[in-house]
Amino acid sequence: MMPSDCGVLILAPVGRDAKIAASILATNEIRSHICPSLNETLSHLDEAQCLVVAEEALISSDRNQFASWLEHQPTWSDFPIVLLSMRGTEIDKRLSFLDGYLIVLERPFLASSLANSVRSALRARARQLEVKSYIEQRQEIADRQKLLIRELHHRVKNTLANVRAMMSATARSSGSVEDFTRDFSARIVSLADTHSMLTDDYWQMASLHKLLESELRHYDTSDKSRVLLEGPDVSLVADIAIPVGMAFHELASNSSKYGALSRPQGRLEIRWSVGSSGDARVVNLNWLEKGGPAVEQPKRRGFGTTLLEKVVAVQCDAKLELNYHRDGFHFAMALPVRETRLVPGY
């Protein structure tokens, strides 16, 4: 087995050339590995940086696989070969497939000539690997741009569909043009805030804590905080973050109109934890209002209830409970957390 840090292969099975070459390279702090045959050399070529090979070792071997490997190198690769030939002789025509890769060194050679030839080959290989890395980075950027464009198309279509559904539902639940303008504008702002969080992460993930904070910071203006947010860091994928963010907006809006946040002494406590259901991670969230006016069961279904029951429950596969206890509204949600993100994180 070739050592992992050994980049120079030596194939010179006849005489002492291999040992002499390895000794010279070792003296010059260049690690090498002696291969007894062309077959073993072939098995190490993908990891090697350079090949030092005696002319007769190639002539006496089946060269087809070696020639094929050289011919089918990737575009960035021009594998360097130091060919040890005999002084005063032409290179055998059977080795013409090596044209373009060769540094020819006539034997007997000076130690400095071999060391300098191998160093030159290793520098050339290092440049090639830099080109390879550059090409891979460019390809990664191009792939990411394709994903982002595809994701953007998807998000724009979804956003327009959300706005249209929101407009229709708001119109049905509004008693006047003023009500419609006020509620629709507030919902658009909430949607925009969620989109801003997603934009910060290439339209992929949004923090559950930041979603809640964004919706509730407007209602927590007194010196003594009335809103408690308590739970671990959880990131929601965009398809879940948008409807959940809108749901938080509706719950917060209702609380400020009819619930705990409508009274100075009222408090809102939101706690969540992460559990599991089968193979899925599940966020268990509890929204508990205290100190507000006596709660009554709503007499009609508003936009918020429709959003929770038809969008959050169905689209997000969440299990919901809305409890209108007289001493405070309680909302519970078991939300499966998907881990998949389309665009890899930086």
What is the name of the CATH architecture of the largest domain? Answer: 2-Layer Sandwich
Query: Strand content of the residues, in percent?
Result: 15-25%
Please work out how many helical segments DSSP would assign. Answer: 9
Structural class: alpha/beta
Name of the CATH class of the largest domain: Alpha Beta
Distance between the termini: 37 Å
Determine the mean pLDDT: 86
CATH structural fold name of the largest domain: Heat Shock Protein 90
The count of DSSP E runs of length 2 or more, i.e. the number of strands, is 12
CATH superfamily of the largest domain: Histidine kinase-like ATPase, C-terminal domain
Shape: rod-shaped
What does this structure look like?
It is an enzyme of class 2 (transferase). The protein is an alpha/beta fold. It folds into two domains: 129 residues, Rossmann fold (3-Layer(aba) Sandwich); 163 residues, Heat Shock Protein 90, CATH 3.30.565.10. The protein is 47% helix and 21% strand. The protein is built from nine helices and twelve strands. A five-stranded parallel β-sheet has the order 2-1-3-4-5, with helices on both faces. Strands 7-9-10-12-11 form a five-stranded mixed β-sheet, with helices on one face. α5 runs antiparallel to α6 and α6 packs antiparallel against α7. The protein is rod-shaped. The model has no long low-confidence stretch (mean pLDDT 86).
